[in-house]
Amino acid sequence: MVQWKKYFDKYLLKHLGIILGSAILLIIAIFFFLRVYTLHGEGSPVPDFRGLTEQQLQHLVKERKLRYTISDSVYISEAPGGIVVDQTPLAGDRVKKNRKIFFTINAWGQEQIVVPDLIDNSLRNAQVYLESLGFTIGDLIYIPSEYTNLVLGQHHKGKPVEPGTQLYKGATIDLLVGRGLSNETTVVPNLVGMTVQEARRVAQSVYLNLGATISDDNIDSLSAFIWRQNPSSDRGDVLNLGASIDVWITNDYSLHPDSISTFQETEFDNEEPGAINDAIEEEFF
Question: Is residue 247 part of a domain?
């Protein structure tokens, strides 16, 4: 029994030694293989590609047995268009063969962005939307209004900028924002005959706002004009600063004030005042 136990212990130790030795040899072989496969310690420094055009850097990339891709572009007015302004990995970093280098180049011109329609949006929503498009928020110009923190206009370089206008990325947009009604008053302007855009500028120039815009069915908004407003300017009414004027728009040019004026001059030069009024009422009402 004792002899068998000695034999078993000797057999077990022998095989454990073989297993352990094999494991050590396998680890050494794997480590050596990885060093050879990954070319450990054999990387070469990345050249400085900044200032080169894509055509110029291609030969250098090929010579160093590297690869590249243009991953981004920026606009720097002081630098020539098309040159590399940044790279990853940086110049001097050691990389192995076939490593891809990512380049950021200087754009040939500033990226153009379409200005959105921010009117009647909350100030917070307008700010978030502008920044998401790449614009810069400029001054917040608070003007009297029935509604607080509502966007009433949008300016660029001190002038109104219409939705759909293209501006360069990073352009500054100033926002006209409502701050509530004022105790001061102003005379209601005459908006009849104007487009909605023209009327909005005129109203804002006297610290008023456009309210509801009522239109005919199937109206062409590009050629539409205001033919009626409430309150009217005929009576010399005054409104608190920040109040709104409701307007009605149409494409029916017979309702345009110029058309009515011409109609009156040509048709009723020799008529009595009462006959003129009766004719106008019959024509339009």
Answer: no
Are 77 and 132 contained in the same domain?
no
Query: What six digits make up the tokens of 190?
Result: 């005459």
Per-residue burial over 182-210, b if 16 or more Cβ lie within 10 Å, else e, is eeeebebbebbbbbbeebbebbbeebbbb
| DSSP H or E segment with residue 9 | helix 2-38
Domain of 88: which CATH number? Answer: 3.30.10.20
Select from 134, 157, 180 the last residue of a domain: 180
Interval 210-254: pLDDT, tens = 888 898 777 887 789 999 999 998 888 898 888 889 999 999 888
Whether 173 maps to a domain, the answer reads yes
CB environment 255-272: b (16+ within 10 A), e (fewer): bbeeebeeeeeeeeeeee
Q: How many CB atoms lie within 10 A of CB 113?
A: 17
Which of residues 180, 197, 223 is at a domain's end? Answer: 180
Which 3 state secondary structure label does DSSP give 169? coil
Residues 125 and 154 in one domain: yes
Predicted TM-score (pTM) above 0.85: no
CA dist list (Å): 162 to 110, 129, 196, 234: 20, 16, 12, 30
